[in-house]
Automatic annotation (TrEMBL):
SET domain span: 24-268
Protein name per UniProt: SET domain-containing protein
Keyword line: Methyltransferase, S-adenosyl-L-methionine, Transferase
MF annotations from Gene Ontology: protein-lysine N-methyltransferase activity
Amino acid sequence: MADFDGASQTFLAWLQQSGAQISPKIKLEDLRHAQAGRGVVATQDIAEHEVLFRIPRTAILSVENSILSTEIPATTFESMGPWLSLIFVMLYEYLNGDASNWASYLSVLPTEFNTLMFWSEDELAELQASAVRNKIGKEEADEMFMEQLLPVIKEFAGMFFAGDERAQQKAEEMRDECNVTLMHNIASLIMAYAFDVEPASPRKDVDEDGFAEEEEDEALPKGMIPLADMLNADADRNNARLFYDNKYLDMKALKPIKAGEEIFNDYGPLPRSDLLRRYGYITDNYAQYDVVEISMDLVTDMTTAAGIHSEERLEYLEEQEITDTGYDIFASTPFTIQESLSPELIILVESLLLPQEEFERLKSKGKLPKPEKITSKGAEFLHKLIQARSAQYTTTLEEDAKSMNAALPVRLAPTKERRYAMAKAVRIGEKQLLKQAEDALAELMAREGGPSKRQRAVDDEGDVEMGGVEKKPRTST
């Protein structure tokens, strides 16, 4: 406890020496009892729009502020991109130990992670058929480290290892398992805590309230913003937001905050599967953003089994930007097909089911079926598709719900049991969406009275009614 609190106080002292201004109405608190690490809590009542803390841009751990940016060509950083560049810089600062300008900051960052990258095979197996298992990317990260990062370290070994006479040997040793693990740790820190930092002279407009959105915009440099990244996140209790200025970054209250209340940032509309993948925890407040993915492979397997020849049609749909590796079913309240099923999935299915003559006609006019016009055949195929997707999970929704009721609260369980419980909550959320979709499609089929009862709408020229589609964003990968 003393070391934990001592590290916090040393960090805050360093931050203020670096030019940060911290309101006396807040404090950095030990929240490990709630499995939340450090968090920021109000010690006095805080008014809406009040500045909680102000961080100078010079205190951000970034490529721009690193000494490496003055010694290594800008083209090298550009070729690595924002993610790998920040990994490179943070690796340098970590290896510098106490000599690093950010040593006090690095000492309070997590060293153990619950993100999926660090789960064992038996823990990952608890996710069953969740598509998030294919988005962990450990092998891809290993390849990126070996093929892109290590060559840069070797090329600039003298600088990277501060003139050490063993610099080249140390560069070779970066291939060792312990150093690759360090790279994964740093990458996980960046994924969980880094911000896309708006430049001092914005290259894009902020919104009318002055907010700078935290978007996955690869054109923006990434940076670790001390203290800002220690706010925990909550979709419903979000009460603070980061604002950008030419010289400072201000964290401001979005609403009045009472003394004793925790101060929360927000990650945006992330499904719990991505919350677990990126941040290593879940909360029920993010269930409203849950999704379940239907893979393109499952769609093509089912069309092949049904004797539907789809190659030509898939080529056309690819030209129309309809094909994808997978399609999401989104949570909605109340659940509706139009709100929850990916429009592209509906267009894909309806296009594959068209009689050849109708397909040729729409192709000649560059048209697409309208996603709001689901035929009985389309509903029937989608219903079977949803059932096939549900069957990919090894337990049923009912079995999961029953065993979940007997489990310990997630935050109170030991690490392995906690991971099992979080995985189960994720897969339950996905199965609930599949059940809702299956029921809604069954209701649609019953209402339409079967495949022979529903006719396709036609346009004024006698063609199948077609139209464009507004794409819903896929979940992050």
